Amino acid sequence: MPNKKDPKQNILDTSIALIAKKGFSAVGVREIAKKSKVNISMISYYFGGKTGILKAIIETYFTLVGDILKDIIDVDLPAETELKKVITGLVKLINEKENLCRVALLEMPLDVPEIANYKLEMVKRNMRFVGKKLEDGFNISDKTKHVIIGHAFISLVYSNFIFGKLRRKEFNIIFDDKFFETYTDIITTIFLHGVYGINDVCCPDKRNQKNKNNKK
Amino acid sequence: MPNKKDPKQNILDTSIALIAKKGFSAVGVREIAKKSKVNISMISYYFGGKTGILKAIIETYFTLVGDILKDIIDVDLPAETELKKVITGLVKLINEKENLCRVALLEMPLDVPEIANYKLEMVKRNMRFVGKKLEDGFNISDKTKHVIIGHAFISLVYSNFIFGKLRRKEFNIIFDDKFFETYTDIITTIFLHGVYGINDVCCPDKRNQKNKNNKK
DNA sequence: AAATAAATCAAACAATCGTTTGATTAACAA
DNA sequence: TTGTTAATCAAACGATTGTTTGATTTATTT
Predict the structure, then answer these.
(1) Contact B51/B115 with Cβ under 8 angstroms?
(2) Searching chain B, which residue's CA lies closest to the CA of residue A169?
(3) In a domain, B209, yes or no
(4) Which among A45, A131, A43, A48 is positioned nearest to A82, based on CA atoms?
(5) Residues A143, A185: one domain?
(6) C3 C1' – A46 CA distance, angstroms?
(7) Per the CB 3.0–4.6 Å rule, which of A89, A173, B69, B89 could disulfide with A68?
(8) Which tens digit of pLDDT belongs to each residue from A132-154?
(9) From CA A163, how far away is CA B124, in angstroms rounded?
(10) Based on the domain organization, do A111 and A84 belong to the same domain?
(11) Contacts 24+ apart (CB under 8 A), B13-17
């Protein structure tokens, strides 16, 4: 795997692959070092310790997600269009960096408050984004619903990758660009039709009035 | 935590709580034994080793899910009604045994083929169930879509619990029965409206013809 | 070329890992 | 009660954990 010259990046890349596969605690520094073809001590040298790797991974992920959201927020678009773009952007990110996303999403080191708190803050920030869109574009203002739908949104977008380990060879599907296109379409459709359904509004594509519907 | 007399059950209960919180590899047998108030050797004695605990957890979970599905399949109902009942049943299970579900769902010990293969088989079985419902009740026959929507289904149902660690205190929401009722409603609505959306069919509640719509 | 800094290395650190042993106690059957 | 099995225990097993040390090599600067 490590073909590049940069040892720090090698460690990071190897770690992402290993942690995505086995979980953070199950991966040892010796295994990382060996596969990265660097000395064990280089991990502490570059990352200050094993947890430093996880920190770097999680920070990288939320920076990438932040960039995606920022680009979309900057242009002023209807909430529905924005959500569509967010889904497309996130699926693209998953497609490109599946392991990174997996690790950042599923690992939650409660014993390292620095990382745990950072991640919590980022999740809350992203949740606030979804909540705002639900309020602006879908007339859903109840905070409890925001939390439920917010989590549903993330789970939906990442659905094929959270449990992805299994499926790779078992469901014989080719994960090409066409798959990701289909995937994006289906997830977008489910979420938008689903959320409109909460407000008893149907056929979002054909709908022409806006914000005139009542809550369920 | 261990108030009961049965040491085996104590070990299991403690393990479920700990593994749900920190992940299987991050939990040590000494920690389990201490909190269970049993001797360390009792773990090997009752479960044959640490991985035996995980095996027991995962088997318990899929047995419970199997029972839920069986009860629903036995009565002959329309696909939509069946899916509604499945969601209700699963959310109820999550409500009652959140930690068990978390562990069984997220832990995938690839280094223990016996458990990994068992889990894979169970997931495939449940996936086949959803696939059949999509075919029967929603005119969706494409296998790739079955996989995508099947994963989406599971992710949706479990959405508030996969990332639940964080949210507990942070989003100040009371997780009472009313919450789980709202949660079930929202998830059901999103999924059903969402899947009907894939077929360009709107307002599933108001729809009165069946299986007469074309695929997108 | 000499001096300074950065990077890499093998080796050892204490701590913890899961498991096993063999003795001891508790429970139950004959 | 005696004999037998089941359950529990402290202690130790070797292996592995993440981290650090101090020497050595490589790279950069003076």
Answers:
(1) yes
(2) B120
(3) no
(4) A131
(5) yes
(6) 25
(7) A89
(8) 999 999 999 999 999 999 999 99
(9) 12
(10) yes
(11) B15/B53, B15/B57, B16/B57, B16/B99, B16/B100, B16/B103, B17/B99
Tens of pLDDT, residue by residue over B159-199, are 988 776 566 667 778 888 899 999 999 999 999 999 999 97
Number of domains composing chain A = 2
DSSP A199: T
- Centre a 10 Å sphere on the Cβ of residue B22 and count the other Cβ atoms it contains: 17
User: What residues have CB less than 8 Å from B9, skipping those under 6 apart?
Assistant: none
Query: Please, how many CA atoms are within 13 Å of residue A100, restricted to the half-sphere of its CB?
Result: 21
Q: Which amino acid is present at A187?
A: I
Instruction: Answer yes or no: do A179 and B152 touch at CB < 8 A.
Output: no
3-state helix, strand, coil in chain B (%, to 5): 75, 0, 25
Return the residue matching tokens 């690790």.
A103
**H or E element: which one contains B67?**
helix B50-74
pLDDT at position A123 = 92
CB distance A196–B195 less than 8 Å?
A: no
Tell me the residues of chain A between 181 and 210 that have a Cβ less than 8 Å away from chain B: 182-183, 186-187, 189-198, 202-204, 206
Whether the CB of A42 is below 8 Å from some CB of chain B: the reply is no
Find the CATH number of the domain harbouring A23: 1.10.10.60
Is the pLDDT at B2 greater than 60? The verdict is no
User: How many interchain CB pairs under 8 A, A with B?
Assistant: 170
Q: Return the nearest residue to C20, CA–C1'.
A: B41
Mean pLDDT of chain B: 88
> By residue range, what is the domain housing residue B146?
62-198
Q: Confidence band (pLDDT; 50, 70, 90) for B201?
A: low
Cα B155 versus chain centre, distance: 9
Structure token pair of residue A112: 């390292």
**3-class DSSP state for residue B110?**
coil
What token pair was written down for A72? 């979309």
Q: Give Rg (Cα) of chain A.
A: 20
Inter-chain contact B156–A158, Cβ cutoff 8 Å?
A: no
Bases of chain D with protein Cβ within 7 A: 7-12, 16-22
> Same domain, yes or no, for B40 and B69?
no
Specify whether B41 is located in the same domain as B115: no
